[in-house]
Amino acid sequence: MVFSDLFMIVPNPFLSGVLWFVTITVLLYFARVPAHRAILAITRVLHFALRLGANAAIRTENRLELRNREVLLAAGREATERRVEREFDRIDAAVRKDLAEFPALHRTLSEKTTQMEEDHQSSTEVPPTPPGWVKAVDAVAAIPAKGDPMVGEILEGIHGSLVNAHKTAIDEYRKSTQERHAHLKKMLPEWRKLDQTLGAVDKKIHSLLQRTQAVDRHMDNYEEITRGTDRAVRMLSSSSMIQFFIAGLVLAVAVGGAVINFHLIARPMAEMVGGTAFVGSFKISEIAALVIILVEISMGLFLMESLRVTQLFPVIGSLPDKIRMWMGRFAFFFLFALASVEAGLAYMREILMQDELATSALLRGDGNASFESLFLWITTSAQMGMGFILPFALVFVAIPLENFIHSLRTVLGFCLAAFLRGLAMALRLIGNVFRYGGHMLVNVYDLLIFAPLWIEAQLTNGSRGNASKLATMKETS
């Protein structure tokens, strides 16, 4: 009530309100020009500041896109080089394994072919020509017998001798031909073996040709990546996105396996390290089980690095082959030992469950209850098998983990570039809102002092009308 009395100019509240309104309107009217300038200046400053922020975001996005492009092309070039190197290694192994005996095979084929050709030519030999004395016999046979019985007998004897000689020669020729054909028949399996060998060689050569075509495709992609074409960038971007989601899915499955492994050994670990000890809000037994699983995953990573399946640690890959193989053996040994420990913990878990069931039965008064089952070994074996196999299954987590890490860099770059692009658009939109909002505030300001502005306009129009009338009167006079 005292506060309202301070603003009472006259005893009548309505008149006081009118007087305050008129006073404020007059003050706003006289402050119209600097107020307009202040409003426009503030909104212009905000507009330019937001515009500068948008331009900075756009420049940052452009630099980030260039960086993403360089990283993507470098990763694609490295991956393509690894693919081409592996293809050449496979081609070299195939040549060494499959075509190492090709010269000896070629020599054997040539010898067999020459021998078969000679046998075939010998088997198709023509019959020998008749001896020379046959012509003499023909001449004697041409002598007319003239009924002489001696001549007839001689000619019949000569004819019989010739028939017998011809028959003997034909029999010998047939016998020799049968022997040669039998030899060729024996060579038929050799022909089949040679045909199978040549077919296998043809398949191996065809496989090598397919590998060379794959190398050609990889080399074409490598050339495009080296040139930095837009097609190569799009292809690598799509491949990175696909690898990111696939690797994420596989890692999610691996996390599920790790959770199952954790629950499999957490309970017996409580009996070993104590289930009542805590570190903060976590049990010592749970921490111990988690440490075992993490150590198994670490041993799996070192094993994969030693085998050069992955390249997460370049130091391991650059070690000498002897040291690297020894490191792989030690990693496998520790992994095998931890898997055996997990199998023992799984067996201990089953024993603890049976003890708890027996204790519960005794507390209920069911002392005659027997919890032994003929099929108890099935669950025990299953738990021990899971405890032994899951650590080795977690070894292969290194492969999707490497793909996930490499693709994550590209995906984060794309997401950050998209965020910067959206931020620039938002800043530009807000800047334009401030820019046109200043004009709107100027109009609102003029709306509040519309009465003085209307009076000013009327006076200005009246003075202009009087000036125009005086001008016309001067012109007419």
Q: Outline of this structure?
A:
The chain is built from 13 helices and two strands; from the N terminus they run H-H-H-H-H-H-H-E-E-H-H-H-H-H-H.
Provide a descriptive summary of the structure in words:
With 477 residues, the protein is mainly α. It folds into two domains: 46-79 and 229-362 and 373-457, no CATH class; 99-227. Helices cover 86% and strands 1% of the residues. A two-stranded antiparallel sheet has the order 1-2. α4 packs antiparallel against α6, α7 (230-273) crosses α10 (321-364) and α8 packs antiparallel against α10. It is elongated and about 185 Å long. The mean pLDDT is 76.
Write the layout of secondary structure elements.
Elements: H1 2-6, H2 13-30, H3 32-98, H4 102-123, H5 133-141, H6 149-227, H7 230-273, E1 278-279, E2 282-283, H8 284-306, H9 314-317, H10 321-364, H11 376-393, H12 398-448, H13 450-476
Antiparallel strand pairs: 1-2
Helix pairs in contact: 3-6, 3-7, 3-12, 4-6, 7-8, 7-10, 7-11, 7-12, 8-10, 10-11
Shape: elongated
Query: Which percent range fits the helix content?
Result: over 70%
Count of helices? 13
How many domain units?
2
Q: What profile does the largest beta sheet have?
A: 2 strands, antiparallel
In terms of structural class, how would the helical and strand content be classed? mainly alpha
Average pLDDT taken over every residue: 76
- Measured between the Cα atoms of the first and last residue, the distance is 68 Å
Radius of gyration: 53 Å
Write the H/E string, N to C: HHHHHHHEEHHHHHH
Strand order of the largest sheet: 1-2
Q: Could you give the count of β-strands?
A: 2
Stretches where pLDDT falls below 50 for ≥5 residues?
A: none
Strand share of the residues?
under 5%
